[in-house]
Amino acid sequence: MAKGHIHAIVGENGAGKSTLMKILYGMQRPDEGEIRINGSPVSFHTPADAIAAGIGMVHQHFMLADNLTVLENVVLGSEPRKGGIALDFAAARKKIKEISDAYGLDVDPDVLVEDIGVGLRQRVEILKVLYRGARILILDEPTAVLVPHEVDELFENLHGLVREGITIIFISHHLDEVLKVADAITVIRRGTTVASVDPKSVNARQLAELMVGSELPSPETRESTVTDVVALQVTGLTMAASAWRPIPKGTPASFYMDQMRAEGGGRLLLEDVSFTIHKGEVLGIAGVEGNGQAELVEAIMGIRPSVGEITLAGTDIADWSTLRRRDAGIGYIPEDRQRHGLLLLAPLWENRILGHNSGGVWIDRKGARADTERIVAQYDVRTPGIDVDAAALSGGNQQKLIVGREMSGDPVLLIASHPTRGVDVGAQAAIWDHLRSARAAGLAVLLISADLDELIGLSDTLKVLLRGKIVADVDPANVTPEQLGSAMTGAGEEA
Amino acid sequence: MSPQTPDTFVNRLLGRIKLNGLMALAAPVLAILFAGVITSVVLILTDHPPVDTLLAMVEYGSTPRSLVGIINLASAYYLSAMAVALGFRMNLFNIGVDGQYRLAALIAAAVGGAVTLPKPLHIGLILIVAVAVGAAWAGIAGVLKARRGVSEVISTIMLNTIATGLGAWLLAQWAVPVAGSNNIGTNPIPESGHVPSIPLIPGAPNEVFGLFVVAVLVGIGFHVLLNRTRFGFNLRSTGLSEPAAVASGVDVKKMVIVAMLISGGMAGLVGMPQLLGSSYSYSLDFPPGFGFTGIAIALIGRNNPIGVAFGALLWSFLDVSQNILSLEKVSPEIVTIMQGVIVLAVVIAYELVHRYRIAAEQRRVSRELSAPVGMEGAAA
């Protein structure tokens, strides 16, 4: 990484970007390898070490106290002293002015943070880091919260900083921005560097290809098992960003769409989503993360309120509780298995009960234990026994346990959210096998994944979700990951 | 034990993270020894012989008469701590046990004093009223949290204060003078509402409250409820990981209300051994403060029925045996210091033991990983 460069690091979610940054900033210790600054190796135990070495981090979420002024926020934690006790605000103000002028940040030290806009707050964050003497800045997804013209302003500031000899590490997965601003790009995937490229010689499509990769084991399923029996039908599913209230039955959501959009600050999390899944069909939902996939799953599971019709095997379940939906035969492999799928500090057999806990007063301890033994054997969960805590298992084995649990009790529909994320290759193949055989047995699957090969390989039908709307139907039989990728960003009409 | 999400200090403090085997015992024993050392230091500083003083406390505390007093007091402490523990197990801080039990005892005493019924019915009625009042008072906080998102910590503390005011007003409405003093209290409960005491300790001039049995039953019920029933499983899952509980179909709002009702119902029983065993009337000198002691004891016992039983007996032993101190010319407040130190030391000791275990576990794992295996990787 060269001095005075803007160096971008791109990669999918979970590719290891954040971990890398945490290591650079001393929040996490590396297992192996070394970090060199200006040629000399350094090792950080705490963020304070990193700050002392001239590394500063601007977090994605601002860490500013709203009720203090810019000046107070900047000096917070490294207040200049005068005569031992008193704070030397005059000196601090002078220094802030100097930095602000030198780098063209245009920050007024005496306004309250709560009165300034998002773009300016970000400049305050940058100033805060520079004030502490940082020469290397890490910006974690700095554009996520900015509107386009603020992004342009930020990029101007960044170029200004670079001219003054500051080095910037820029993390993002907005490829267009990266190409626009970076002097060098490193692509990481699954924790390793897969390419270092020159932004002048690649386009967004090639970069996406590098990010996604295409040498994975094939999740191919070709012979169709799709029947014409409808398992799940979703019609006009809409979710407002906030201020949800029930609307009268039978009224179409479209009637209230404008109002809901206005209440949610102009945005709907889900907008008029409709699809049908038949028995034996895998419906894949493709989309860049944060475009409504999580909301769609939560709406179907009844975890978050939404408007629209959801029928499971012909029965309207839109008013049902999560528990009743699960009892009716919806299996759910959640996106974040440790947060939503497991009780990490409870033994495996108790985790078997989680989500399959209805009817009667007593827990069926014997049954749960016996069935956990079955899952462990059938799904090849590697564990010393069923009495160990779920936290003791590796991610792949945790996931196999969840898959086994959600497949038990013959579900009608399985919602699989990133079923193989963060899982090693062996477990991934096993999970794919289980999904395939369940599909052959007539299970309907709603598959959500960021792994495009997985989506294309497993799905019988593919839909692309963008900003809460289904924007394209894709035939998985003749689409490439590249075409799908550009459809996901809304850029490619060619897909 | 993974260092990820729920392994926080608070979770360890509230016993949602298990400590296994000997370690679970080591922590409180260390804490009590530490408290003994601190107390000795204070005694030495104030010119008292520490060993003799502590021995005098043990000797006095183990006389049959004191033992009965310890068990009686511990019954109330235990019920209070279990009420707190139920909330803790699902991340609810019911700070309002104090208000709940006082209001429940007052209204139950008034109802009990106003009617005459055959014996078992009369006692049953009083207990049911107490449970209902405690549950209702705690239920207010539960509904506020579930429907309006009001923190139960704030609302239960406020409800404590309201209970004090309401109690004083109700007592003034219903009070009759207590014979032979300028105290006022509710109409005494007639003989049919008295619970006969049990001569549990041989050689003691006094007897154990009959409702000591209720405390034991509540402890057993707590264990069965939490470990054997679906409701208890849902309650524990909500405490371990709320998102996972929601995803598994637990209606967390309903759980909050029901858990507060049960916790409040248990709190309603706190005053009953005393009321139906010896005072028979709620008067101005009805013992206050059991609710707050219950919080400390729940922490010492890590919200486990057996642990809390030990905690309640220990606390009660210290309370009873401090009576000897004035005879020894030692200020009885030394016991308050000791109780405070025990709570702090227990919290610290659990934390130290926990860290020791993590370090030991990590060493074990890294030893196993550095051994030449290759099995794990090839098989996965």
What does this entry look like structurally?
- The complex is a heterodimer of chains A (495) and B (380).
- Chain A has 495 residues and is an alpha/beta fold.
- Chain A folds into 2 domains: 207 residues, Rossmann fold; 259 residues, Rossmann fold.
- Chain A is built from 18 helices and 20 strands.
- In chain A, the strands form 5 sheets. Chain A has a 6-stranded mixed sheet, sandwiched between helices. Chain A has a 6-stranded mixed sheet with strand order 16-17-18-13-19-20, sandwiched between helices. Chain A has a 4-stranded antiparallel sheet with strand order 12-11-14-15, sandwiched between helices.
- The model of chain A has no long low-confidence stretch (mean pLDDT 79).
- Chain B has a domain of 241 residues.
- Chain B has a two-stranded antiparallel ribbon with strand order 1-2.
- Chain B is mainly alpha-helical.
- Chain B contains 16 helices and 2 strands.
- At the A-B interface, helix 11 and helix 12 of A face helix 9 and helix 10 of B.
Write a concise keyword list for the protein shown above.
heterodimer; A: 495 residues; alpha/beta; Rossmann fold; 2 domains; six-stranded mixed β-sheet; 18 helices; globular; B: 380 residues; mainly alpha; 2 strands; disordered N terminus; disordered C terminus; ABC_transp_permease (chain B); cell membrane (chain B)
Shape of chain A: globular
Number of extended strands of chain B:
2
SSE order of chain B, one letter for each helix or strand: HHHHHHHEEHHHHHHHHH
User: Looking across the biggest beta sheet of chain B, what order are the strands in?
Assistant: 1-2
Beta-strand portion of chain B reads under 5%
Number of helices of chain B: 16
Residues in helix, % of chain A: 25-40%
**CATH structural class of the largest domain in chain A:** Alpha Beta
